[in-house]
Specification:
By secondary structure, the chain is an alpha+beta fold. The chain is built from three helices and five strands. The chain has a single domain, classed as Histidine kinase-like ATPase, C-terminal domain (Heat Shock Protein 90).
Length: about 130
């Protein structure tokens, strides 16, 4: 469990890099670290400041399933959410392009962003 503050991004990325070393093809590891960085950054930025932040990873047969849960109000991706604007960058676009698939769920006043990341192969699935 992490605290929703900027240091959580570095901590989550380091934890994921260590976990992924035996699972993810070497060429894909920077992509995984980038996606984790984007998801955790969004949780810190849009979640409850100083609240709990949970990062979990579950190995599946063909991919790694990662979940980031925060105490924030959540978001619903809208048309145009994949484009840069004055409030942010290309985070959702990066997640979309580098992961197999991703989504957002809301439950018990918590927001969970999850994504599936292929062990090998090209970004975005087979």
């Amino acid at each position: 469990m992490l605290v929703a503050e900027p240091a959580a991004v570095r901590q989550a990325r380091a934890w994921m890099a260590e976990l992924a070393r035996p699972l993810i093809a070497e060429l894909r590891r920077p992509d995984l670290e980038l996606v984790v960085t984007e998801v955790v950054t969004n949780a810190v930025r849009h979640g409850a400041a100083g609240g709990a932040l949970l990062v979990a990873a579950t190995p599946k047969p063909e991919f790694l399933c990662v979940q980031v849960t925060d105490e924030g109000a959540g978001l619903v991706p809208r048309p145009g959410a994949m484009a840069s604007d004055e409030n942010g960058g290309f985070g959702l676009f990066i997640i979309e392009r580098l992961s197999r698939r991703w989504g957002v769920t809301r439950e018990n006043r918590h927001t969970r962003v999850w994504f599936e990341f292929d062990y090998d192969g090209s970004p975005g699935g087979p």
